[in-house]
Amino acid sequence: MINIERSNDGEIVVLRLPNSDMNNAIRWEFEDTCITVSQDSDVRVVILTSSSPDFVSSALENNFGLASYVSLIKQPVLGVIDDSAHGLGLELLLASDVRICASKSTFSMAHVAHGAIPSDGGTQRLPRLVGQGRALELILTGRVVGAQEALEMGMVHQVCDADPLKEAFCIAEKIAGHGPRAAQYLKEAVYTGSDMTLRQGMSLEADMSVILQSTLDRIEGINSFLERRPPNFKGD
Which residues contact 145 (CB under 8 A, 6 or more apart)? Predict the structure, then answer.
């Protein structure tokens, strides 16, 4: 069963994957959870982590499609690794927006060693993050990457010597304090725009900016600046 924890009056939600065998039921539960969280207007940030030392337990390795469900979440998603992320675990991690790991963390995508290829977005997301040449080298060799190398190539954004989940909460609280509608539009503009030409992406950005100008949160942002006080965004 997926563990769901809420904090900051429900603004931050932690989704914790189990470390036991849930067979195919975990896939449908995870999809329903991601859809429910995405539709919850109170949720501003999602933290995705695991109860297992591996981001995805070997017991869950056959549940392909988990990464695609992460992409259903409209809010910013922080992926947190306390130990390692290999195979499907790394594919799932790459589907999050900001990735934070421990200094001891290791990563690999060694499907080819078993006569297979990544099937949950690994061949598509990894090249977009680290570059085509480097992604091919990692997937073709299946070699293990340490935390520092993962940081240098852009696979992860932050390496923590202490508790990566604690650091993720600090980042989540900062994001949650910003305009939630703006954060969702920003995320959509980046991902959708990456599949467009530059001109099309610029038009998308302009359209979303115009839409935001009519929201109550935008008015609150302007008023808080003029009145020199912290904004009180409500997602309206």
Answer: 106, 107, 108, 138, 153, 155
Pair of tokens at residue 231: 């904004």
What DSSP line would sit under 209-220, residue for residue?
A: HHHHHTSHHHHH
d(CA 215, CA 211) in angstroms, rounded, equals 7
Q: What is the pLDDT of residues 43-95, one digit of tens each?
A: 999 999 988 777 876 555 666 788 999 999 999 999 999 999 999 899 999 99
Given a contact cutoff of 8 angstroms between Cβ atoms, the answer to whether 50 and 56 are in contact is: yes
Compute CA 200 distance to the chain's CA centroid, rounded to the nearest angstrom: 25
Point out which residues pair with 106 in neighbouring strands: 84, 146
* CA dist 194 → 84, 129, 201, 205 (Å): 28, 12, 7, 12
Q: Is the dihedral of CA 110, 116, 117, 118 positive or negative?
A: negative
Which tokens in the block code for residue 93?
């991690």
pTM: 0.90
Residue 53: DSSP 8-state: S
Structure token pair of residue 213: 């100008």
